[in-house]
Amino acid sequence: MRGLNRGSSISDRLNEEVLPYNDWLRSMQCSSKKYLKVGSFLPAQDKLLRQVYDGLKSNQKVISFTAPPASGKTHVIVLVAYHLFKKGIQTCIVTPNNELRTEFQKELLEINNDAKVTIPIESINTYRKRRNQFDFVLMDEAHNLRSAIELDPSLVKSFHFEEGDSLFEYLTLGMDAQKKYVTKELNIETASDILKEMEKTAFCKDAQYLQKKLSQWRAFLVVFKKVCTLKFLLADPRKRSILPHGRLFLFSATRLDEEELAFYCDIKPEILQIIGEKETAFIPKANVQYRFLNCDTDLHKLENVCTLLNAFSLPTLIILNNNVNCLTWANELAKKFSDRVVCIESGQMYSKRTKVFEEFTKGTNKILVTASAVYWEGLTIKNLNLLVIPNNPFPQPTILEMAQGKHPEYQKIANRRLIQGIGRIGRIPSEKGICLLLFKPSSVFRFFRATSLDEVISLMKGWL
Length: 464
Fold this sequence. Notes:
The protein is an alpha/beta fold and about 475 residues long. It contains 19 helices and 17 strands. It has three domains: about 180 residues, 3-Layer(aba) Sandwich (Rossmann fold); about 60 residues, no CATH class; about 180 residues, Rossmann fold.
């Protein structure tokens, strides 16, 4: 496939060749097996296609489009990528993680074309290394860009400690014992002292690497109750850039934040246009029942879940707020449901994570226990009937909030994370599911109804 002449304007090339809208839309319809099968696009797809068409004819380098979950934007992205591919434009589809790459590879099969379509589909981390090769980039799930960058170990190095660890005691020394939540940026002298202590532990290699290049990193500390997280961010924003040689279209389920895009991705406001509604509140899905069961203790939570899993052999996702809880739940559940339980730990390598996830999706009654951020946000899990969240999420503020010296409220951060978690179920409208919290959520989640274990059992019998 030929690329554009690097001295020419991509917008000029597109403006010369983009058909009148009705003709362009007809070409999209003819390229879509789904359209040819049912005779129409979804209303949200029609709206998004019109916005993309207008975007193609503009001169803006970066445009962000907003489309709600389950609106069919994956198919729209594939159609637009195919449209550009046919013009000989070096085009790439980008996803925040490797799991979503598989979904796009399947969606490419819905293109009505005799020849093989060879459009690169990259994870964000892989794409960043060769972004200058592309004239046009279509990035899905862009609302997860921040998380994808914060989870990239080449950009952000994270260390977790719990009460009882020597480093936990060192990091929290002198802090107010009554203050359960602390976030702050560390100066270079303090960060250096901490790294010297880390060199005495299993983190020695990482600590020595950071110590040698400490002027290139910014350090942040988060302490919540008995858990402490230390983060180092590569300071130069150009190293975090996601800008291609040409143009970038971002597709998001929620309206993107201009400050976050500038801080994390080096996308300045003057090259950015954001299209879409400003309202980003979570909208409950009609195919999901939302309930909470207020349990007193961790043991009570585990007992209730065991009762449900014993009564129903359904695909179940249990997402925990930290890796210690994840391993505890996985071990306890394996004692009773050894042939059904699979576990994905935080920070697990993609190859191993994929193998475990495939085992989960191939079974009809598997139980996936995880604390991985990948499964808190962004991933579509087909045929998922039951989602259980035992505890309120760990209140992890963004690095941007810490860098700005803000003191975000614990509940606000926990709510933001919980919204992402409960969105894992019911992403396919035809699939019914139940989302069960084992704690009472804040008033933001008033659509959750209080329930009892017997009521949950009755609901599962009648709804699923």
